[in-house]
């Protein structure tokens, strides 16, 4: 297990290229319409198998996030100019409760679990994105704006449909990609209706190992991956 709070430089580990529980890696997103990294979150590996990667984003983790050039958080900018004004990135802390992230290889979404204080389960959050690309130090993707919230009573609802539409209007997503995202959305809804994995797998009862240190953000968080695989 990593010690001292720093991100341990782990390889993809073994013939299967899998990480071990307790390994600390980066979960990153490329900027939309560009090649740079604009979101980087150090996380701790919970489980890494051929069919599932599960990681824990601990409260207080130092991350990198995008802001407008004047420092305005994107969600505070009017939608019509949210994606056209110049941006930069800044460090910040992940406040509130932690997040458990689940991703299956090749799937165009990841599922995040949120809790209220005191481990009262709140909801699952389906984040539509490019299937994760694994590299020696973590995983990379590109966010596709559209999201789906799923609640403990098995009800669900779309999130950020307005941002999804605006991103297309501003040229950040072409017609073919947008249709792939819509198809992914339809597929995810079918999984929810059937109450398939991971919703039926009991992850809401999971808890992090109390001995895990909160990872530190490495200085080279935006480094080019030394190795890429899918």
Automatic annotation (TrEMBL):
Domain of life of the source: Bacteria
Residue ranges of domain DUF402 in the record: 76-196
Pfam families referenced in this protein's UniProt entry, alphabetically: DUF402
Keywords: Hydrolase
SUPFAM superfamilies from the UniProt entry: FomD-like
RNA-binding as UniProt keyword: no
Coiled-coil segments: none
InterPro entries listed in its UniProt record: DUF402, FomD-like_sf, Ntdp-like
Keyword Protein biosynthesis: no
Protein name: DUF402 domain-containing protein
Species per Swiss-Prot/TrEMBL record: Streptomyces bobili
């Amino acid at each position: 297990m990593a010690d001292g709070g720093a991100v341990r430089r782990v390889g993809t580990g073994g013939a299967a290229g899998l990480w071990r529980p307790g390994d600390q890696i980066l979960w990153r997103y490329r900027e939309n319409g560009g090649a740079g990294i604009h979101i980087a979150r150090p996380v701790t590996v919970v489980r890494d198998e051929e069919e599932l990667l599960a990681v824990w984003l601990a409260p207080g983790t130092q991350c990198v996030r995008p802001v407008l050039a004047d420092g305005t958080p994107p969600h505070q900018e009017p939608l019509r100019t949210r994606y056209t004004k110049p941006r930069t990135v800044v460090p910040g802390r992940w406040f509130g409760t932690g997040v458990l992230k689940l991703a299956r290889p090749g799937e165009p979404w990841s599922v995040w679990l949120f809790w209220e204080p005191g481990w009262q389960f709140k909801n699952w959050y389906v984040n539509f994105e490019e299937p994760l690309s694994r590299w020696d130090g973590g995983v990379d993707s590109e966010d596709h704006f559209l999201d789906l919230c799923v609640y403990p009573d098995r009800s669900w609802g779309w999130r950020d449909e307005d941002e999804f539409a605006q991103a297309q209007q501003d040229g950040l997503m072409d017609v073919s990609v947008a249709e792939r995202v819509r198809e992914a959305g339809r597929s995810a809804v079918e999984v929810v209706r059937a109450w398939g994995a991971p919703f039926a797998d009991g992850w809401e009862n999971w808890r992090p190992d109390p001995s895990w240190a909160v990872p530190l953000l490495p200085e080279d968080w935006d480094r080019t991956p030394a190795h890429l695989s899918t």
